[in-house]
Amino acid sequence: NAGVTQTPKFRILKIGQSMTLQCTQDMNHNYMYWYRQDPGMGLKLIYYSVGAGITDKGEVPNGYNVSRSTTEDFPLRLELAAPSQTSVYFCASTERLAGFTDTQYFGPGTRLTVL
Amino acid sequence: EDKVVQSPLSLVVHEGDTVTLNCSYEVTNFRSLLWYKQEKKAPTFLFMLTSSGIEKKSGRLSSILDKKELFSILNITATQTGDSAIYLCAVVIQGAQKLVFGQGTRLTINP
Question: Residue A41's domain is classified under what CATH number?
Fold first, then answer.
């Protein structure tokens, strides 16, 4: 299993450009998440999904959009990039069963700089 | 508003020292608390705690949860330079299907 994969690893955008951060997991997990991590800070939840076709906002959703058409993929879209979106973006997934299986598996991250 | 606070934010010690990292929380509906270690890349899972007073151990690392006082500690004994990392605490909210992370503690172990 590859686990959670993210592309690209690095990207530089100009203000106003748009891009999609890709996230794929091959563990058949229902739950997927997008976080951003600013320098010296913890992770903040942008959007999450509890299954294909279902998404919901997290703590900092403004400026982002997501979709979940399949169990495996959870892309994050930036429509009009702003310098405030300079951050490292992590995708994560987890499988919730009846027991406490809350462990989240993280992708390697995408470092995004908006100039 | 659900909140997770870690302290200290930064800690520098010498190799061989013992450290204690703190995580306190105020959340609407607690399900579990997770500790992660983050080196250069993605966070890696350390512990999941759901019950008060039961210590989880993995080598030199251990952690315990106090659900009455709403905090958890992560202990690292006989620290090594490889323990240098950011340690993240997160609380899983029951029913909300999501985690709330603390700011992290940046631990530096000097030789």
Answer: 2.60.40.10
Q: What is the residue-wise DSSP string for B19-87?
A: EEEEEEEE-SSEEEEEEEEESSSS-EEEEEE-STTPPEEETTEEEEEETTTTEEEEEE-S--GGG-EEE
Which range of residues forms the domain containing residue A71?
1-10+29-97
| Å between A43 CA and nearest CA of chain B | 6
- Cβ–Cβ gap B32/A42 under 8 Å: no
Looking only at the bridges linking them, the beta strands covering A76-78 and A87-94 are: unpaired
**Conformational region of residue A2, where left means phi above 0, alpha means psi within -120 to 50, and beta covers everything else:** alpha
Per residue in B46-105, pLDDT (tens digit) is 988 988 888 999 999 999 999 999 999 999 999 999 999 999 999 988 876 678 899 999
Number of CB pairs, chain A paired with chain B, less than 8 A apart: 60
Buried b (16+ CB within 10 A) or exposed e, B10-32: ebebeeeeebebebbbebeebbb
> Could you tell me the domains of chain B?
3-110 (2.60.40.10)
CA proximity to A54, closest of A41, A66, A40, A37: A66
pLDDT tens readout for residues A52-76:
999 988 889 999 999 999 999 999 9
B97–A96 C-beta distance less than 8 A: yes
- Minimal Cβ distance to B32: which of A100, A107, A108: A100
Searching chain A, which residue's CA lies closest to the CA of residue B89? A42
